[in-house]
């Protein structure tokens, strides 16, 4: 008896795999945007340059597929909302926000902004992305600190999402 070959064209999982492959492109572009946001926030903290000038510089110096719309939206809003973000972050820190390394501060601003303003992004994604960026740019164990602070913030900024899990 000859083996029966499955008809691949009728495989219901085949279209899902194609959809998943297509969805990775925007995720990679968003990840690159977050990387640039952290770098731009770092530059903003260090140089005290105007955010619009930094944004223009980053657009000029970085090519490739990047979610520029997201970069501009988030990077330009964080300085405008700095006082609000500080009020969210301050109570969950074990030290003054100003005593944090500029990389940690940039990561916490990004994570707090996303938790507070981008409810379309699951809190676990926000935390994971910031932790991965901390591993790339931060101090040796900085990612653990970022994880702990953002986890505490998720409890106050995303209580309904946490209750639903």
Describe the fold and architecture:
The protein is globular. By secondary structure, it is an all-alpha fold. α1 crosses α2 and α6 (123-137) packs antiparallel against α7 (142-157). The protein is built from 8 helices and no strands. Helices cover 73% and strands 0% of the residues. It has one domain (25-164): NusB-like (N-utilizing Substance Protein B Homolog, Chain A), CATH 1.10.940.10. The protein has helices spanning 13-47, 51-61, 68-80, 82-89, 102-117, 123-137, 142-157, 159-164.
Secondary-structure map with pairings?
Elements: H1 13-47, H2 51-61, H3 68-80, H4 82-89, H5 102-117, H6 123-137, H7 142-157, H8 159-164
Helix pairs in contact: 1-2, 1-3, 1-5, 2-3, 4-5, 5-6, 5-7, 6-7
The counted number of beta strands is 0
Q: Which CATH top level class fits? A: Mainly Alpha
Low-pLDDT stretches are 1-25
The CATH fourth-level homologous superfamily: NusB-like
- Main pleated sheet: none
Helix content: over 70%
The total count of helices amounts to 8
Total discrete domains = 1
CATH topology: N-utilizing Substance Protein B Homolog, Chain A
Strand residue percentage? under 5%
- Class by helix and strand content? mainly alpha
Overall average residue pLDDT: 86
N-to-C SSE string, H for helix and E for strand: HHHHHHHH
Termini gap: 50 Å
Shape, per Cα inertia axes? globular
CATH architecture: Orthogonal Bundle
Gyration radius, in Å: 19 Å
